[in-house]
Amino acid sequence: MANNRRGFLQKLGVGTTALGLGAAMPLTSLANTNQVDKEGDDEQVLFIGEKIAVANTTYGKVRGFKLRGIYTYLGVPYGADTSGANRFMPPKKPTAWAEVKPTIWWGNTAPQNMEKRYADPVSSFVDHWNYDDVSEDCLRLNVWTPAIADGKKRPVIVWLHGGGYTNGNGIEQDGYHGENISRRGEVVYVSINHRLGPFGYANFAGVSPDFAASGNVGMLDIVASLEWVRDNIANFGGDPNSVTIMGQSGGGGKVCTLMAMPSAKGLFHKAVALSGATLRVSEKADSEKLGVYILREAGLRPEEMDKLQYLPWKEFNEIATRASRRLAEEMRGQNRRTGWSPVADGTFLAQHPFDPAGSPLSADVPLILCSTFNETSPSRSNPALENVTLAEVKDKVKERFGVKTDQVIDGYAKAFPDKKPIEIWSMAVSNRQNVIALADVKSKQKAPVYVAWFGWQPPLFDNRLRAFHCSDISFWFYNTDLMLTHTGGGSRPRKLSAKMADSLVKFARTGNPNGGGLPNWPKYSSDNGETMILDDMPVVKNDPDRSARKTLA
Q1: Which residues contact 371 (CB under 8 A, 6 or more apart)?
Q2: What's the confidence (pLDDT) of residue 339?
Q3: Domain boundaries, position 24
């Protein structure tokens, strides 16, 4: 059955990415990229050998491969193994190597719960998840570049994957690949793996001062990757003084968090957060309390922290998960963040990123914020909900909106009279409250913020997917013919993708997205709420959902 599934996906044209069978094939999964030269199909496109694509790093030489003119390096170490004594500790530099290191396959995925990862067939198909081996030796990054060591200063885009702070990796979706945007935009593209869940965010600072950084080591991993970029990216044709950090969902949250981290200051110069506008992170007291609960769940005393460091990762992960659930149950109804996320400890993370004010550390960093019309699409796997009535919608969302239910649903229905009840449901629960709140705060700083709202609807699953969470990623990277399960492929999504990708490259070069083919994109102001609507015919509107959002306040 598994082999049949793989064969089906190959015929579909989405590559030999294994669903539950292993990792994405870096060559065949890219065989249908947007930029393949059809007239040159009979020419060699892959070059690999002992003296091909050899580049220098501060730790030793690496050897990648050249595919369709783009130099590709996979699984490059930027940090040491994080297991054993390094668990819960800030990342350490990797050990230098003498021989040329082959970097032609993905690095390990960070430890996370892999049970039933593909249990939902619709989600597995749509997002086409890719996972490699899992281990704590996971501090690896991938690089795509048009040339190496040629003296040119190309802008650099560093991609931070989604999955909250608990799941995911740098190759989780085919849309993450950097070949097409690297070629189209003449940019260097980097994606990374870093620690997640309790390995990256279990805070034991309240247990022992030796573990003062433990609540933020996942973020410190990302800082270490940006330090690697600063020190090495010139060898890969990039400009360390023109770095854009970009992420989606949890990755967008990581972008926002980096903007308030003293150690990240100066390592990036522009930022893009997709569907991950984060104003606040965990509170210090709550985060430290969770660390105490983990130790208690393990049956250990504070002086026995070393035993926790050497537990098998799966055993520790189960212990930490039980402790997190116990604390979440105790804090139910308190409207505070629980679980795994960075913590505003005042040291490694100076403050909440954008609440009550934006961190002065990134006041000079231009920012793009984008979300999708339908982050949550209730009918995605339930066709019957397509015919739901507005009254039934109100009943469905009453637990979420409480006494404001009628006001909210009626407000969205009035603001968007052309939308069906199922779409009103989706837009209300996918609202832009955080995006606008963050944009309002950022607009008070020196550098501009640009706001977009992605509304492009894929013609898949009887049009039930709509502009769903993650659907815009492949458009920004010119990967719409690669991420077919998000777009269907073809000229329609490709046309919008070209405009979005070119605008992203303009932003990466200058801090201003204009000139890439989209209509004139004004910077956001609280008064007007300027928003770029990304659809087949992109258009700028002034705060199109303002009246609807007011019902949520």
Answers
A1: 274, 275, 277, 430, 432, 435, 452, 453, 454
A2: 84
A3: 2-274
